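step 3/5: co-fold with heme C
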Amino acid sequence: MTLPKADSIPLAAVALATVVGLYFTIAGTFVGVSAEPDEAFASVAEAELFELMRAEFGGFLQPQMSGDWKLDALLAGRAVYEVQCVHCHGTDGRAKTPTAKLLTPPPRDFGLGIVKFTSTPVGLPATRADLLRTLIEGVPSTSMSSFKGLEVESLDAVANYAMYLLIRGAVWSNALEELQDSSASDAFEAAMLKQRQQFSLAIASWGRPDIPAAADSARGRELYFSAELGCVVCHQEDGSGGLVNAEDIWGVPMIARDLQQGVLRGGTSPADVYLRIRNGVKGTKMPPMAEHLEAEQIWDLVAFVHSMQEHE
Ligand code: HEC
Ligand code: HEC
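step 4/5: write tokens
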């Protein structure tokens, strides 16, 4: 056997990784359909909590959800998820699949109940409309592609299912925290209540901002360079960004976005960039500016961010 030339090794490695990835993707899809994830519990109370979770949310093969969430067709959503999403995000939504290990950035782990790009203020979960936006637009420059090719019913159903996984994840992770100083049933009730309240607030807060007739990128530039807001600390004076010396809540090293890029991950439209600056990027160090800036000032920053792209 002849060894590959040095300069062809990276390509060979990529090809191998792709083939291996594809194998696991196919195998994983079939395993994913029949397997219920194994749970290992740290304590008796945690096992009790899991039983309460199952009574409320069912298993991943028979998802259910009670009350006023108004999410139906979970089974239809699961069916789409098993075909389109499971190899990256996993049956349990924890994104621990063999394919996920090959991807940078990794697919979102839904287990904390948090996603990055939402219309809602910090501390509140994504709305269904936010998830639909992500599914339609994808997350540009990552392996999260656009699913706008799916039929409307399938998109709706799979958005519901992603919402189910996120709600379930939020309740479980909040209840685990509560479990430190209360019984399993108290912890579960508290986590359910918190999630219901936050969900209602999120829906009430939803809305795309109206784009103003004029925004001033020169004023936006001043804000961008102001020591108080500190944009340049992470994004650099020229907007090229770079590594922030910390990990996000999913344990992934954070990179302040290169704002010169033509495409931004949370959407490039003025309304998207506005929401990003107002709400920050959840789970990361990109800070929400809602409490520091007036709407008008945020629009000025949006204009400046867009001007950096034009001068690429
Ligand atoms: C090829 C792998 C892959 C597939 C298939 C995939 N995703 Fe993703 N998904 C990703 C990656 C990677 C990210 C994280 C992007 C980031 O961190 O910016 C992501 C992020 C997400 C997010 C969160 C975005 C945010 O705001 O943080 C949601 C919701 C999501 N995916 C849902 C889905 C659904 C539903 C499907 C199936 C219809 C799907 N994904 C299929 C890789 C994938
Ligand atoms: C502490 C570091 C930090 C500061 C300060 C900061 N950012 Fe960020 N920013 C980030 C990181 C990290 C990301 C990428 C988050 C992700 O998607 O993983 C980001 C993402 C963004 C995005 C979203 C890009 C996309 O792809 O959707 C915009 C827009 C942005 N920043 C603008 C700003 C502006 C304007 C300021 C000042 C008001 C600012 N940032 C301050 C770290 C920072």
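step 5/5: annotate
Residues 1-37 have pLDDT under 50 and may be disordered.
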